[in-house]
User: Which sequence fits this backbone?
């Protein structure tokens, strides 16, 4: 869950970037490019979602 405004803003900028990437392909008029872009984005999201938490200083 979002803990502060900076984290919330980061999440919103990430979402905006994703929408812009899809929009760029849609404006080209090729729906196959749009579908490919969506699949790439889904893989990126899943990679972030299921990654192990990074090491903290206390774990080093």
Assistant:
């Amino acid at each position: 869950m979002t803990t502060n405004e900076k984290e919330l803003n980061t999440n919103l900028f990430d979402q905006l970037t994703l929408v812009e990437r899809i929009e760029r392909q849609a404006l080209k008029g090729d729906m196959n490019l749009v579908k490919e872009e969506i699949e790439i984005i889904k893989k990126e999201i899943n990679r972030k979602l299921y990654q192990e938490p990074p090491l903290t200083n206390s774990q080093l």
In short: The chain has a mean pLDDT of 82. The helical segments are 5-27, 31-49. The radius of gyration is 15 Å.
